[in-house]
Write a structure and sequence with these properties.
Shape: globular
Radius of gyration: 17 Å
CATH topology of the largest domain: Fructose-1,6-Bisphosphatase, Chain A, domain 1
Number of domains: 2
CATH superfamily of the largest domain: Fructose-1,6-Bisphosphatase, subunit A, domain 1
Number of strands: 16
Strand order of the largest sheet: 3-4-5-6-7-8-9
CATH architecture of the largest domain: 2-Layer Sandwich
Number of helices: 8
Structural class: alpha+beta
Helix content: 25-40%
């Protein structure tokens, strides 16, 4: 199966999951139902519903490719350490934004190969915005029926940073200063990667903890658009399927 054929299937799945998320988002009887996981992070009915849609569809279209989802049962490292290729999913990235009802949440689906994110889809259902990246082949944004190729800015100075609405950290300031950041904007979820990918921002630095499913799809979009995602402030590429799926700090540069 070609990467374009995979993209067609994954975008379809992301839209179906997004429709399920919106069904709950628009119903006050369901959108306000929030549980909390062991780490005290929020969990909504939309997280669960989106997971079910994506898991069932991936198992249908790609029955031999394993998957890891934030809302699924996590395979042990012994089971997954030998995986050459697998799907990595965040059924609802930006759960806090969903609860705040600001619309800045996404459905994230990524394909990991040899511990690198090579294909990613980030779908923002409120505005029907789909970001697609295939590393080595390019990135695009689809809004409704309008498709646009996207690329990073590659600015050398006077850069714009994109920062988290829910997880801002003072440690970011020193990094942004080094990269000559003149201005900043705030947005939720993995849309920050997408802002860099389409040139609306030039840098995204995250000091606080994330999980691998939070970053995989966004990284693929940013890198397919010509950006880079590094571990901390090093020049080492961000990789996946670690024994502990908790990420350290990272730097996304356009």
């Amino acid at each position: 199966m070609t990467s374009e054929e995979k993209v067609q299937i994954i975008t379809k799945i992301a839209k179906e999951a997004g429709a399920e998320v919106m069904r709950i988002y628009e119903d006050a009887n369901f959108s306000n139902v929030v549980d909390y996981k062991a780490d005290n992070s929020p969990l909504t009915l939309a997280d669960k519903a989106s997971h079910k849609v994506i898991e069932a569809a991936l198992e249908k279209y790609f029955p031999t490719t394993p998957l890891i989802s934030e809302e699924g049962e996590l395979p042990t490292y012994e089971v997954r350490k030998g995986w050459k290729e697998y799907w990595l999913i965040d059924p609802l990235d930006g759960t806090k934004e969903f609860i705040k009802r600001n619309g800045e949440f996404t459905v994230n689906i990524a394909l990991i190969k040899d511990n690198k994110s090579i294909l990613g889809v980030v779908y923002a259902p409120v505005n029907d915005e789909m970001y697609i990246g295939v590393v080595g082949e390019g990135a695009k944004k689809i809004v409704g029926s309008v498709e646009t190729l996207i690329k990073v800015n590659k600015k050398e100075n006077q850069k714009t940073a994109v920062r988290s609405k829910s997880h801002a950290a003072p440690e970011e300031e020193a990094v942004l200063k080094v990269h000559d950041v003149l201005d900043s904007i705030s947005v939720g979820s993995s849309l920050k990667f997408c802002m860099v990918a389409e040139g609306k921002a030039d840098i995204y630095y995250r000091h606080g903890p994330t999980m691998e499913w939070d970053t995989a799809a966004g990284q693929a979009v940013a890198e397919a658009a010509g950006g880079k995602v590094y571990i901390g402030t090093s020049e080492e590429r961000f990789t996946y399927n670690k024994e502990n799926l908790l990420n350290g700090s990272f730097l996304c540069l356009g």
